[in-house]
Design brief:
Length: 816
């Protein structure tokens, strides 16, 4: 459930152009119409048709948005009443939009051959071939939307009564709200309740289902074919949604399903208007940094009210700036944006912005301006809590609390050959080691971090965490000792110092996994992961995944031949050697030896990864062979300089003035491209998410700017890396201004996709991917523990880039 292609993300950002439309759009019709973005619109109501393509993540099909909040999604045919993540989904074909007739038609079919028992998350499809279309159009003079499912031919008889049109309702929105089923009232339960001792029994059946009756947000859904059935998907999947389902009428393929969706529309209702959102950092600002408040409004709303900056005192509020007139930035996604620069406000203290608009006042969160803003309790919880809590093969204690037990002590056995695992691992026809499938591999039950909301160990996340923690320590020498990490007893005690630097201990922990596996197998692992889905979906303490005794339930270790992972790990181990050599010299020497071996046996040619690994090996050894490789390929370094931002500044002085001039010229050219990207959004960072929220990519983008500023300060300003940090800390699109870093800031992700998500909780210092894009134009960050594409934590750059940005901001702004 993770994307591991940050480099491709950067290249994509450098080529993509997000245009900001500067016009104010006025709409006051109560009729539903097909707008210029090719979805249906009326005041307070949108219906999109297959603009998204991630049904396994509750993101796709027909989607309903009410007052800028997505309340229903995945309107499409499904083979089960309550499908889960690995359930069969259709393949989308041609989508036709007829603007004149206001009609949208989408061609779909089962199976999707690209997912059928293959791909990153393989799905097992039944023996069914089904081709159909879903068509939508306004009816009743624009008061309703007609949804029609048309099949090319009747269903096979064995599938009669088993396939239906599902529409998923977001539980977090509907908890405690009422509905009417053919006039009979009911309420959406906060916790799932099994009815009639059967998971297949619907909660209700009706021909007309009314959501939120008696309110301005009511929506009536009427079936003109078979009954509508209500299911609670959480009965079978903790991350399920409520589901409205109508079984296909196989006797009438042309009208297999017909629904009429009628929302209540009142253009005069103020509840239908998107209220302005004031965006400032949830943490605050350093007096010397550039500071900007951003106001987000509906596309048909002009900012005519009064904006005021206030300073908060003990018993008073002081107006610092009154009658502020923010400048109109333009249109981005579905909103208008205004901005006002308050860089000149440098006095330390508590502040807030208040917007006065007619009879309502809208306030920003209170924020701090302080010289130590990035020095204390910003990056530290990630080291004090998140990294220790993610440690595998350890018992993690916090006073009376046990975050998790000493898990996976029975790691691991060699994975079966010719096996495509359900979470992206593929074992080839060979184990690539001396170990046969099913045999135990020693040395794997120590070190490493659980990669994300899951519990697997991926080599790329392990090595990137080691690498960037090593850079953070080498560059900034952060002093932190608040945790006891005892590798002998495999126990962690949070809040109990042990006289050792916690960052160095975390680097050591990652290395124990990487080095231990290499020494056992003579190569890197691809990953270590549980063998079946029942283990994989475990929520809670990972000690319960296996019995910790070598046997039938042990995790599998996968191997691969993949130069990017091998060279990326060589790069990480070379850098780790420098910070480990005085802390754990034996382990450090092993790192350098393995790094050199991985480098030497690579046959991929002179790649980006090869040059980056050569740079770190040269910095660690001063070996002329590595220097020669870099010098002979200096043109490649310069031509693709964005891919080498983490190393280029540290090696430029090693190659003479001519090379330095070439690099500086390339940096200036890159700076021009970066500034263009920064101007594409009001937030000063490029925002173009694919499926996942863009937070991790923006962090990584900011870290590149950090390294360029540190080593080429005259060419790269610090504003851009600070924009990335601001974005993570709350200055991002959409109505939810939460900091993506759990527990950091006034408002943050305190319901997140960690291993404790079933408790609607969080892990302090974990960083979620953040605000996703519901296509085509709705930024979304829901308060919901099960949307991995918005709030899942990951290791690697997703975690350590935030540490680097925070440490870098503190160093730059305080001239440390």
């Amino acid at each position: 459930m993770r994307s591991n292609k940050l480099f491709l993300f950067f290249i994509f950002l450098l080529t993509v152009n997000i245009s900001a439309q500067l016009n104010i759009v006025k709409t006051d019709s109560s009729k539903i119409y097909l707008n210029s973005e090719k979805y249906y619109e009326a005041p307070g109501f949108n219906l999109t048709v297959f603009d998204d393509f991630y049904p396994e993540g509750h993101q796709g099909g027909i989607t309903i948005i009410r007052n800028d909040e997505r309340i229903a999604a995945n309107g499409d045919l499904r083979l089960e009443p309550t499908p889960g993540q690995w359930s069969p989904v259709p393949k989308m074909g041609e989508k036709i939009v007829d603007n004149e007739k206001q009609l949208i038609s989408v061609e779909l079919w089962f199976p999707d051959s690209s997912k059928n028992c293959k791909g990153f998350n393989p799905i097992v499809y039944p023996d069914l071939k089904l081709k159909y279309k879903i068509q939508t159009e306004p009816i009743n003079e624009g008061a309703s939307i007609l949804v029609t499912v048309k099949m090319d031919e009747p269903l096979p008889s064995q599938w009669d009564g088993k396939i239906g049109f599902n529409l998923e309702l977001f539980p977090g929105y509907f908890f405690g709200k009422y509905y009417l089923a053919d006039g009979k009232p009911g309420a959406f339960p906060r916790d799932p309740i099994l009815k009639d001792s059967s998971v297949d029994s619907p909660l209700v059946k009706c021909t007309e289902f009314v959501l939120e009756p008696g309110t301005a947000n009511r929506i009536a859904i009427k079936s003109l074919t078979k009954d509508i059935e209500l299911y609670d998907g959480r009965i079978t999947h903790n991350n399920g949604w409520f589901i409205l389902r109508t079984i296909i009428d196989s006797s009438n393929p042309e009208e297999a399903v017909k629904w009429v969706i009628t929302p209540h529309i009142d253009p005069s209702d103020s509840e239908n208007m998107y209220k302005p959102v004031i965006k400032v950092s949830q943490v605050g600002y350093h007096p010397a940094q550039k500071k900007q408040v951003i106001i987000e409004t509906a596309k048909d709303h002009e900012l005519n009210g009064k904006l005021q900056l206030q300073r908060i005192g003990k018993d008073s509020v002081i107006i610092i700036e009154d009658n502020i007139n923010p400048e109109y930035w333009g249109r981005f996604l579905r909103y208008n944006y205004y901005a006002w620069d308050f860089t000149n406000i440098r006095n330390e203290g508590l502040y807030r912005f208040v917007y006065f608009d007619k009879d309502k006042n809208i306030s920003s969160n209170i924020f701090l301006i302080d010289y130590e803003i990035f020095s204390e309790y910003v990056w530290q919880p990630t080291v004090e809590y998140f990294l220790p809590i993610q440690m595998c093969h350890m018992r993690v204690n916090e006073n009376y609390r046990v975050w998790h037990g000493r898990c996976h002590m029975d790691d691991a056995v060699m994975a079966p050959v010719n096996h495509n695992h359900f979470d992206g691992y593929v074992q080839s026809e060979s184990t690539l080691t001396r170990f046969e499938s099913g045999s135990r591999v020693p040395g794997l039950n120590k070190g490493g971090w659980h990669d994300a909301g899951d519990f697997d160990l991926r080599i790329e996340s392990q090595s990137e965490t080691v690498y960037k923690l090593s850079l953070a320590y080498e560059l900034f020498r952060p002093q932190i000792d608040v945790t006891t990490i005892d590798q002998k007893s495999q126990t962690v005690e949070i809040h109990i110092p042990d006289g050792k630097n916690d960052i160095l201990q975390q680097i050591e922990h990652g290395l124990l996994s990487i080095v231990g596996a290499y020494e056992s197998m003579g190569r890197l692992y691809r990953g270590i992961i549980c063998r079946d889905l029942r283990q994989y979906v475990l929520l809670g303490d990972p000690v319960n995944m296996t019995d910790n005794i070598p046997g039938e339930d042990d995790r599998w270790v996968f191997t691969e031949n993949y130069y990017r992972h091998e060279l990326g790990t060589a790069q990480a181990l070379a850098a780790a050697y420098r910070v480990m050599k005085n802390f754990n010299p034996v382990l450090a020497d092993k790192c350098l030896k393995i790094s050199a071996e991985l480098f030497e046996r690579d046959t991929s040619g002179i790649t980006t990864e090869k040059l980056n690994a050569a740079a770190e090996l040269y910095l660690s050894t001063q070996n002329e062979n590595y220097k020669k490789i870099l010098f002979e390929n200096r043109e490649k370094l310069v031509e693709n300089i964005f891919a080498h931002t983490l190393v280029i500044g540290r090696i430029t002085d090693k190659f003479g003035d001519d090379f330095k001039i070439e690099v500086e010229n390339a940096i200036k050219k890159l700076y021009n491209n970066v500034t263009k990207l920064q101007r594409e959004t009001p937030f000063g960072v490029p925002y173009k998410p694919y499926i996942w929220g863009a937070g991790w990519g923006i962090q990584a983008f900011g870290v590149s700017q950090l390294f360029l500023h540190l080593y080429f300060p005259d060419a790269f300003e610090s504003d851009y890396l600070l924009n990335s940090l601001n974005f993570i800390l709350g200055v991002h699109p959409g109505k939810n201004n939460a900091s993506f870093v759990s527990g950091i800031g006034v408002n943050s992700l305190t319901t997140a996709y960690g291993f404790n998500r079933a408790d609607w909780s969080y892990i302090p210092g974990g960083i979620g991917s953040g605000t996703a894009l519901i296509r085509p134009d709705l930024p979304e960050l829901k308060i919901w523990p099960y949307l991995w594409q918005q709030t899942e934590y990951v290791l690697g750059g997703g975690t350590v880039d935030y540490i680097l940005l925070s440490l870098g901001a503190d160093k730059i702004l305080n001239n440390k």
